[in-house]
Write a structure and sequence with these properties.
CATH architecture of the largest domain: 2-Layer Sandwich
Distance between the termini: 48 Å
Shape: globular
CATH superfamily of the largest domain: GAF domain
Helix content: 40-55%
CATH topology of the largest domain: Beta-Lactamase
Length: 268
């Protein structure tokens, strides 16, 4: 596995400025589902790509699946993202790159080929089954110890990234990261109050798991079941099951009671 601070490179080809400007213009809109697909389209004009995912990392939490998109792989990326966020993220080379990078490094590049992965199940589920040859990740630090990883996956049919393609990705990285950061920060700002309420409830119910806490925040934000499933990287039916379990843990009968519990002056 390799990682390095972003280099300054003059590319042979440039991004479509019109498409990039359109993505910046959508900041503040509920654009999470489409964002990864738009990034694939933006980069894919110059480089063949199979998948794109954006994960948000916060201290003491499982990664959040912020957005994802793929191009007709045989295995569902929703399922893969769920397995990654719940089971495999600690095996990811991104973790080592983030831990070793200085806080002042705005963008770090991490390259991970399928053969770099020692963990058999992680390699099989996230790379071999969807026929991924390698991944290039763009990592950037945010406030309060958070990190974002913008991941571009190369299909086996296209082989590994060439030097020219890596140069293109690095030259495009500052604009790509700025687009993703702005969308993510707008999302955080819109969800700041639900996050604070979720953190207060989590402190009073220490038995809640990391997934319970993320689910609690999503419910207090008011997003629907499909969006919750996307954020958790699971199927809608699984999200509905997790919601019922959380209500039982908190002793509430539904969303209205949960909101009342989160906003009342005295808790148990």
């Amino acid at each position: 596995m390799q990682f390095w601070p972003l280099r300054t490179i003059e590319p042979e080809h440039r991004l479509n400025i019109g498409q990039a400007a359109a993505l910046l213009g959508r900041v503040g809109e509920n654009h999470r589902r489409q964002l990864a697909g738009d990034l694939l389209q933006l980069i894919g004009a110059g480089i063949p790509l199979a998948q794109c995912t954006v994960f948000a990392y916060a201290p003491r939490r499982n990664p959040q699946v912020f957005t994802f998109a793929d191009r007709a792989r045989e295995v569902s990326l929703l399922k893969i993202s769920s397995h990654y966020a719940e089971r495999f993220y600690s095996q990811d080379g991104n973790q080592h790159a983030m831990a070793c990078s200085r806080s002042g490094e705005r963008i770090v590049v991490q390259r991970q080929r399928v053969d770099d992965i020692d963990h058999d199940e992680y390699r099989r589920v996230c790379y071999e089954q969807p026929k991924i040859a390698e991944r290039l990740a763009l990592l950037t630090g945010c406030e309060k110890g958070r990190w974002l990883s913008v991941n571009f996956y190369r299909g086996r049919e296209h082989g590994c990234f060439s030097t020219r393609e890596l140069d293109f990705m690095e030259a495009s990285a500052p604009l790509l990261i700025q687009i993703v950061r702005m969308h993510y920060l707008a999302y955080l700002q819109a969800n700041e109050l639900p996050l604070l309420l979720a953190e207060r409830l989590s402190g009073l119910y220490p038995e809640l798991t990391l997934r319970d806490r993320e689910l609690l925040r999503l419910l207090l934000t008011g997003v629907d079941n499909d969006d919750i499933a996307v954020s958790l990287g699971v199927r809608p039916s699984s999200a509905a099951t997790y919601i019922k379990r959380l209500y039982r843990k908190l002793g509430t009968g539904g969303l209205r009671e949960l909101i009342g519990l989160a906003t009342q002056g005295q808790w148990r």
